[in-house]
Amino acid sequence: MRGVVVNALTTTALQAEQRDSIRQIFGDLVWEPAIKSRTTLAEANTDMLPLTDIRTTEPRAMYELLGQSFLKAVLVSAYA
């Protein structure tokens, strides 16, 4: 296993506890950022909006950061 992705995260106390539990269990394997629960991307698809639309900026940035975490994990394990 290369990493753990926390996704569909909402801003509730229960979700925060679950996220913290995941971090306690998996430690450094938890990748950042956690992916928030958002309808923006689904709405972009339904509304036929390009992913360059202003409403998709934040989710796109989160996935780009997650991609960087993945590449870092793969490269570190390749040279270990």
TrEMBL record:
It comes from the Bacteria. This is Uncharacterized protein. The lineage of its organism: Bacteria, Bacillati, Actinomycetota, Actinomycetes, Kitasatosporales.
